[in-house]
Amino acid sequence: MVWSQQITQLLKAYQIRFLSYVPDAIGEQILKHARQDDFFDLLPLAREEEGIGVVAGQYVGGSRGAMLMPTSGVGNAVNALASLAIPYEIPLPMFIGWRGGLGEFNSAQVPMGQALRPILDSLNIPHFMLTQPDDVNTVVDGALKLAFAHERPVAVIVSTQLAGWKDEK
Known about the structure:
Blueprint: H1 3-13, E1 16-21, H2 25-34, E2 41-44, H3 48-60, E3 64-70, H4 71-85, E4 92-97, H5 110-122, E5 127-130, H6 136-150, E6 153-158, H7 160-163
Parallel strand pairs: 1-2, 1-3, 3-4, 4-6, 5-6
């Protein structure tokens, strides 16, 4: 089973029905499996901070959601995370497709890629890097458990080492 299918199975096991996303090549690998399962409702977004509000509303309404976003989207979402999800203790699993690291061809991706973990650290958001297929079940299960048990945002960073490198065009 591929890593992205493992993630969708875990999302379903945790009753995370709603997946809000900003299009991203890495997130798309997860979404292609979710589209094949009627359990999931997918919501494309224009900006990442919209998704923070959507997932917060879903949680307050008794449902569970998750966000899928590119690295650069974390910069867009900082205010919504800091002023909504964190202070109001919203469990918010975030799956972040990491750009700007190993093998990156686009120099514009590197600064945010390098800033990603320090930004998450400054917001006190636990984050876990996925690099190997054998770690997917343990890391994602643990991250989801942490998010819902402690009612807080948690980030799973999906590396290009796991997901594959974006082709240079």
